[in-house]
Amino acid sequence: MSSLLYIVGIGPGKVEAMTMEAKQALKESEVIAGYTVYVDLIRPYFKEKEYIMTGMKQEKERCKLALQSAQSGKTTSVVCSGDAGVYGMAALLIEMGKEYPNIEIQVIAGVTAALSGAAVLGAPIGHDFAVISLSDLMTPWEKIEKRLACAAMADLIICLYNPSSRKRKDYLKKACEIILKYQPESLVCGYVKNIGREGKEAKILSLGELKDTTVDMFTTVFIGNSQTKQIKNQMVTPRGYQL
Ligand code: SAH
Fold first, then answer.
1. Residue 15 alpha carbon to ligand 1 centre in Å
2. Is 88 in the pocket of ligand 1 (CB under 6 A)?
3. Among the atoms of ligand 1, which is closest to the Cα of residue 200?
4. What pLDDT digit, counting tens, does each position of 135-193 carry?
């Protein structure tokens, strides 16, 4: 008998931003596993479920418990914020799932912060863009610096995930300094905090100003390209249509 394990991206937070497919997977599941904060976001809408909750940095444990739950015959979902494949747990779960030949793992796409945050700001990623995480927990900082430099050199729009944490307060400043080697201080940038959640906050500012701004880990940062501009209170990167 084979059992089903979904890995579900629930979008930025509010239930309206979840795809119908994600909702359907959760509805079908007997058990839902996730990081406490995300479980709390969905629990009111799926009251009748059995929940497996684990804390931050317990990703392996969460995957193991979810795999064991599916193994026992219960359809199970692991929830991630945004999309489960973007700095999420989809790859880890599939890797750990190698040991469980009877479990079929299905990935359900979700709206990642680069997309939901872009919509809050306007249309900042209307052209080629790069997504870079400033977390050096699993990537050496030198590699992150290289990726930032290459993206800025190529005039890509850059979406920064994990722009800060308690131990890495100055990483955004460092990132801006690298980008400033290739882009001007006046470059149009923006950030969005708590997308789709209580306390949502968005701001458009220059790269020079961004360098001296402190953001928290619930923020996604957008660094424009040379064509990006501010129109009224929105950040826009034109695709190139002649008006
Ligand atoms: N899988 C998630 C990303 C996890 S990494 C996704 O696809 O969105 C965590 C980082 O994502 C945060 O540090 C932040 O930069 C960004 N992020 C995720 N949810 C967010 C939200 N609701 N508001 C703002 N940023 C968010």
1. 16
2. yes
3. 23
4. 999 999 999 999 999 999 999 999 999 999 888 889 999 999 999 999 999 999 999 99
**Hey, is 164 helix, strand or coil?**
coil
Give 3-state DSSP helix, strand, coil % of the chain, rounded to 5.
35, 25, 40
8 A C-beta contact, residue 193 and residue 214: no
| pLDDT over 70 (residue 1) | no
Q: What is the rounded radius of gyration, in angstroms, for the C-alpha atoms of the chain? A: 19
The rounded mean pLDDT for the chain is 95
- Ligand 1 centre and the CA of 160: distance in Å? 9
Residue 51 CB burial class (10 angstroms; 0-12, 13-18, ≥19) = middle
**What is the spatial distance between Cα 158 and Cα 150, in angstroms, rounded to a whole number?**
11
Take residue 195 and report the two structure tokens written for it: 């997308």
Contact, 189 vs 215, CB < 8 A? no
Atom of ligand 1 nearest to the CA of 13: 22
Ordered alpha helix ranges (H), the chain: 20-28, 36-42, 59-71, 90-96, 113-121, 141-153, 171-179, 207-211
Q: Which residues contact 18 (CB under 8 A, 6 or more apart)?
A: 10, 11, 110
| Residue 76 backbone phi and psi in degrees, to 5 | -130, 145
